[in-house]
Amino acid sequence: MRFLIFLVCSITILNAQTIQDCKKRFDTYLNFKGSLNGLVRFDKESISIYNAKGQKEFTAYQKEIPMLAEVFENYDPKAAAKFYKNKADKKLSKQQRDSIRIYLDIPKKTKERTEALPLNGIKVAIDAGHLASSFTEAMNEQKFLYFLRDSLKSTLDTVKIFEADLTYKTSLILKAMLEEKGATVFLTRPTQSLSTFGCSYSYWFANYKQKVLDSLLQINKLEAADYRKLNNLPEYNFFWDFFRDFELANRAKIINAFKPDITTIIHYNVDEKNVPWKKTSPNDYTMAFIGGSFTADRLDNIESKLNFLRLLFGEQLDKSEKISRIAVHEFSENLKIPIACSDDADYLKNNCLCSKSHGVFSRQLILCNKIISPLVYGESLYQDNVDECKWLMKNNTISYGIKTNERVVKVAKSYYNSILMYFTK
Ligand SMILES: [Zn+2]
Which domain covers residue 279, as residue numbers? Predict the structure, then answer.
């Protein structure tokens, strides 16, 4: 009976999707500072997508919106691209819309949630940010803090921490907490020393780089000049010019193959104004990112367009705002640090759209726009804060068999609480 009520409610919500709902989503999360005004047009009964030459490419009509939300959330990229091209400006009949929905393979929840296992049947993907498995690798990845003893007036020890280690430990603890409550958990980095390609970056560079570049050239995803340039880059530069984004896209791909109900992307922030991070900062803020903030130049390829349409028609952004709002409050309460406002960092003011939830920002990040599920991309604290760096250095706590510190455990607990609240309240 409970399941029936849930089913009826979800259908009602889906049917309630209107052009106005999409317009609201477009204004709140998607249209970065008016950048898409010439490419996306709203009428009373339809939404049209234009290309850079001003030609109409695709139109969505009011009655098609629930079906389109399902299509762009469930079709694989190839099928979705084909659908986009074939449908174009055509208006689909009720029969056509119904037959498309019938053939969609939408997974049904069957596991009963209980008081002891409130997350039974819920699939959670966890992405532990960055790659490094050692301090040396973290230096290449430029995600480390190294404060020499002399530069720290208020601390006794040299500070040496790297973000990929903190995120990895957080992900293991969070996984254990969620599994205890019945969730099925997928880690993008199940082993600390491996990238999501199942090997270290150095190994990938030596053994796979050539094959990948060759195949991208062959399928016209890489121009000849870029191919030559990339092929000649040394390992360190190649990481920044190619591998970092390529590996992020792979994270999204393996997360989407898992078909999660929710995704958490774990990062630890630094104070941007403290560059080049040779000393501590007095500041400490907490925040979270969700998808959106599309710019016209980024909407010039079919893959971005399909991500945009999925976020426009479906409820992923609204749901991401909901879980992120809970997460930011959990971070702030459990870690005792303030929630960031737009003025607290230049990237928040210049590169993001503020959602209506304090501390939650729409940002054009690869993972936020490619992952097909509600998500929270958490930046729980500033590692270079004068107190945080000392606390994060400690290895004096054991949680679920992981040796770490109180701060990491509190961050994991905050993500855990937000997932629990999101699904149970
Ligand atoms: Zn990070």
Answer: 123-424
Cα of 161 from ligand 1 centre, angstroms? 13
The pTM assigned to this predicted structure is 0.93
Answer whether residue 172 shows pLDDT above 90. yes
Question: What is the DSSP code (8-state) at residue 38?
Answer: T
Alpha-carbon torsion (30, 268, 175, 189), positive or negative: positive
pLDDT digits (tens, 9 = 90+) for 15-38: 458 999 999 999 999 999 999 999
Reply yes or no on whether the pLDDT at 240 is more than 50: yes
Report how far ligand 1's centroid is from the alpha carbon of 142 (Å). 10
- CATH code of the domain in which 136 resides: 3.40.630.40
Task: Please tell me the distance between residue 20's alpha carbon and the centre of ligand 1 in angstroms.
Answer: 35
- How far does Cα 155 stand from its chain's mean position? 35
In the predicted model, is pLDDT for residue 237 greater than 50?
yes
DSSP 8-state assignment for residue 282: S
Contacts of 66 (CB under 8 A, 6+ apart): 14, 15, 17
Q: What's the total number of domains in the chain? A: 2
- Say how many Å lie between the CA of residue 144 and the centre of ligand 1: 10
Q: What is the pLDDT of residue 104?
A: 80
Please tell me the distance from the alpha carbon of residue 176 to that of residue 277, in angstroms, as a whole number.
33
Q: Tell me: pLDDT of 155 over 60.
A: no
Closest CA to 357 of 33, 31, 29, 126: 29
| CA dist 28 → 24, 51, 116, 355, 363 (Å) | 6, 22, 38, 6, 12
Higher-pLDDT residue of 14 and 157 is 157
Is there a single domain that holds both residue 160 and residue 84?
Answer: no
Q: Ligand 1 centre from 156 Cα, in Å? A: 27
Residue 355 and residue 223 share a domain? yes
Question: pLDDT-derived band of residue 7, with 50, 70 and 90 as boundaries?
Answer: very low
> Contact 393/135 with Cβ under 8 angstroms?
no
